[in-house]
């Protein structure tokens, strides 16, 4: 199994965690040089904050983990196509 399949399987597991908490089933990863640098679990409904999309949380996680300088070289994996809000954040990150 190639790394892309492994990353998507992990996104699906993150999406299951989101669903268990009453959120849409969306999970996202940010990967740099075959290393996961950020993870996001959709939590807009459970947190009451509609900006808590999985893709945004994956980028924020990567920033907290110290990967600001490699974001533009990273690859995003997600169980869903990013919405306009997430796409904008990804583009500017």
First-last Cα distance? 30 Å
How much is the average pLDDT? Answer: 96
> Within the largest sheet, what's the order of strands?
2-1-3
**Using only CA atoms, what is the Rg?**
12 Å
Describe this structure in words.
It is a single chain. By secondary structure, the chain is an alpha+beta fold. 45% of the residues lie in helices and 18% in strands. The protein contains 4 helices and 3 strands. The chain has helices at 3-20, 44-47, 54-64, 84-92; strands at residues 27-32, 35-41, 75-78. It has a 3-stranded antiparallel sheet. It is globular and about 35 Å long.
Descriptors:
93 residues, alpha+beta, three-stranded antiparallel β-sheet, 3 strands
What topology emerges from the helices and strands here?
Blueprint: H1 3-20, E1 27-32, E2 35-41, H2 44-47, H3 54-64, E3 75-78, H4 84-92
Antiparallel strand pairs: 1-2, 1-3
Gist?
This protein has 93 residues and is α+β, with helices and mostly antiparallel strands. It is built from four helices and three strands, in the order H-E-E-H-H-E-H. The chain has helices spanning 3-20, 44-47, 54-64, 84-92; strands at 27-32, 35-41, 75-78.
């Amino acid at each position: 199994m190639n790394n892309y399949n492994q990353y998507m399987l992990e996104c699906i597991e993150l999406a299951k965690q989101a669903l268990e908490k009453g959120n849409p089933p969306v999970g996202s990863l940010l990967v740099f040089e075959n290393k996961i640098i950020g993870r996001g679990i959709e939590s807009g409904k459970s947190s009451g904050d509609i900006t808590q999309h999985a893709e945004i949380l994956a980028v924020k996680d990567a920033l907290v983990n110290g990967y600001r300088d490699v974001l533009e070289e990273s690859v995003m994996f997600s169980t869903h196509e990013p919405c306009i809000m997430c796409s904008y954040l990804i583009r500017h990150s």
